[in-house]
Specification:
Blueprint (H helix, E strand, L loop, with lengths): L1 H14 L1 H11 L5 H7 L4 H29 L1 H20 L4 H29 L2 H33 L4 H5 L6 H7 L2 H10 L7 H6 L3 H12 L1 H20 L14 H16 L2 H14 L4 H25 L5 H24 L2 E3 L2 H5 L17 E2 L2 H12 L1 H15 E2 L2 H16 L2 H12 L5 H29 L2 H22 L8 H19 L1
Antiparallel strand pairs: 1-2, 1-3
Helix pairs in contact: 1-6, 1-7, 2-6, 2-7, 3-20, 4-5, 4-6, 4-23, 5-6, 5-9, 5-10, 6-7, 7-9, 7-16, 12-13, 14-22, 14-23, 14-24, 15-16, 16-21, 17-21, 17-22, 17-24, 19-20
Length: 529
């Protein structure tokens, strides 16, 4: 039996590489934004579009990936996703224009959306019930590892570009640093595509297509002959039951009977993104530069974000069935709100001054004469300081040199900023990050669960897209402190909702939860009457 478990573990790990690619693809852009903004002379909204465009097509892919996998098979769709990842990486790396880059990123978004839906579905269909939860969790864990890997490789490419080694000059890593950051993903994507040849087709899908003999052979490898026969009959009965049932429609989730659970699902879906998590994941080096760190330090500290995210995601997996969903949400969202308020305070306390020392330390190719017009003027707002830089240097030159000038002009407690950002990531990773998806699977009744999760997942993705799109614009037009204050206020409102409206679902069967919400709805209607 250990041999069979080892086989399933291997298959699950291979399939879960889709999660790694998703995490890598989503966050590798964090190291790229600093370089593409001046190279393509982007506005702040264009910069946001370069980051968020992947999420847009991923959202579309999430809608169509399930039906496509029913028609062509889980394995086939995952193989196509691997090809899309590789193509997106190569095309992004050679992008000659901003439009080309966005199109290449959007191509990768289809791979992201497909692997996000299909990888855990495939693992759930091939793993035995005893180990299914752990096997499916590999995918979420790999997403987090992929995010961490992207931060690390971005930093290493930056360091290699500064090296005197001959091979780095031959490969032009310094000149093409952001292109190498994006292109590197092609390697794990190709490995994923090749490794999928080892993966069998989903036994449940094979049974759906009438290929029972092949399905049984795969099930025997997974759980042994006795269990395989039982599982075959169970799957056939389930499929027959599903065939006889009338399909659920989207309008059913808006019925009065589901009003409470749908409200909880929508609020959690929106709250998870309005706390600003993808602003941190996708713009981490930019945020650290705003706190006065140089380019190298901002990239290296982004690695801490990835590591903290990984450690606290594992902690959440260990605690969620022990202390429950609601305590994790309360602890984590409290931490998120406090961290964002500290960030707002820290950036609000910052001052910005151009001195003679600042001017003398800047690049020799930057004409510093214009900066003398704002020399020794103390600015208390990052927005006012950036406006002054634009007026002094012109918007194009200011955009190119902002990341060099800002760390040398700013005065603030950078340690406080670092601690607050890492506390925010830890709070998110141990709470609403993973807990939201667990609660989605528990809140909705069996009949509408799939369509309800798709609906709230769609809302989550749309809000994520909008947050990523407007973040650079917010920093420029509202300022760093107000931006983080807004995130903190949303977290505080979410905390009140969690405290007053969300029940504990730990240890309750899906049927018990359904009865609980029916009683809540009945009590609510009675009070209104």
């Amino acid at each position: 039996m250990k041999h069979k478990t080892g086989h399933i573990v291997l298959i699950s790990l291979i399939v879960a590489l889709g999660g790694f690619l998703m995490g890598f693809d989503a966050s590798v852009i964090s190291g790229v934004v600093k370089f593409i903004e001046p190279e393509f002379d982007l506005t702040k909204l264009e910069l946001g579009w370069a980051v968020s465009s992947l999420t847009l097509t991923a959202t579309l892919a999430m809608i169509i990936a399930g039906p496509l996998s029913d028609r062509f098979g889980r394995k086939s769709i995952l193989s196509i996703a691997a090809i899309l990842y590789a193509l997106s990486a190569v095309l992004s790396a050679i992008a000659p224009t901003f439009i080309f880059l966005v199109a290449a990123r959007m191509l990768g978004g289809f791979g992201v959306g497909a692997s996000l839906i299909i990888a855990p579905m495939y693992i759930a269909e091939i793993a035995s019930p005893k180990i299914r939860g752990t096997m499916v969790s590999f995918n979420q864990l790999n997403i987090v590892i992929g995010i961490s890997a992207a931060f690390f490789t971005n930093y290493m490419i930056l360091k290699f570009g500064q090296s005197d080694a001959e091979w780095t000059k031959v490969l032009k890593i310094d000149a093409y640093n952001w292109r190498w950051m994006l292109g590197l993903e092609a390697l794990p994507a190709i490995i994923y595509f090749v490794a999928l040849f080892v993966v069998p087709r989903s036994p449940r899908w094979l049974i759906m297509k009438g290929k029972e003999e092949e399905a049984v052979l795969i099930m025997k490898k997974a759980s042994g002959e006795e269990h395989a026969i039982k599982d075959l009959q169970a799957v056939k009965q389930s499929l027959e039951s599903d065939t006889n049932k009338k399909k659920a429609h989207l309008r059913e989730i808006f019925s009065p009977a589901l009003r409470i659970v749908l409200t909880i699902g929508i609020v959690l879906a929106i709250l998870q993104q309005l706390t600003g998590i993808n602003s941190v994941f996708f713009y981490a080096p930019m945020i650290f530069e705003q706190s006065g760190l140089g380019v190298d330090a901002s990239f290296s500290q982004a690695i801490y974000v990835g590591l903290i995210n990984l450690v606290f995601t594992i902690l959440a997996m260990a605690l969620i069935d022990k202390i429950g969903r609601k305590p994790l949400l309360l602890i984590g969202v409290t931490g998120i709100a406090l961290s964002m308020f500290v960030l707002a305070y820290g950036f609000n306390s910052a001052t910005y001054t151009i001195t003679n020392e600042t001017i003398s330390s800047l690049s020799s190719d930057l004409s510093t004469y214009e900066l003398k017009s704002i020399k020794d003027i103390e600015f208390t707002s990052d927005v006012d300081f950036k406006i002054a830089l634009n007026d002094a240097l012109g918007s194009s030159v200011a955009s190119r040199y902002e990341s060099e000038i800002l760390p040398k002009a700013i005065h603030l407690n950078s340690v406080l900023i670092l601690v607050a950002i890492l506390s925010f990531v830890a709070s998110f990773a141990v709470s609403i990050g993973p807990v939201m998806w667990v609660m989605f699977s528990e809140l909705f009744p069996n009949r509408v669960r799939a369509i309800a999760i798709s609906f709230v997942g769609f809302i989550n993705s749309v809000v994520s897209f909008l947050v990523q799109l407007v973040f650079p614009w917010e920093l420029t037009n509202l300022g760093t402190a107000p931006t983080f204050l807004i995130y903190g206020l949303f977290a505080a409102l979410g905390l009140i909702f969690i405290l007053t409206k969300i029940p504990e679902t730990k240890g309750k069967s899906l049927e018990e939860l359904q009865l609980f919400f029916q009683k809540k709805l009945s009590d609510s209607n009675h009070n209104l009457a």
